[in-house]
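Running this now, will post back.
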Amino acid sequence: MFILLVVGLVGIGVAVALLVPAKVLGAKEPPRPVTATVVESGSCGQGMDTVEWDAGGQKKQAKLDGCGHTKGETVEIINTGGEMVSSAASLPVGLPVGRRLTALLLCMAALAGGFYAFLFRYAPLRAPAVLPTPRRAELTS
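Update: finished.
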């Protein structure tokens, strides 16, 4: 009965942890993609492309973490605040539930293993599955 209670509580915990938005748990807002124009094209293997975008009324330029774009091409970028920007297509899309799910499943496996060790170590000795049938005394008449 105790194991069913524990498994039920862990299941409820997993559901709550997966359904709670990451923002509630203190995760930062993901950066928003910005449309930029390729100003200078760098050949792959020798350099990187240079892009230009509008940031609050100012034109900014930075190196793009990629190569092979043509001059004048528009690309979606993510500005991380450094001297280099990344392509928006290179960032993962979706909720970051993989780490939380992995941690919760690891805890559940550890709990199950600990409970199994407890049962193995402290379980009372049980009677064998097949008991020998007692011999009946033959009645002599």
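Strands lie at 34-40, 50-55, 58-64, 74-78, 84-87. More later if anyone needs it.
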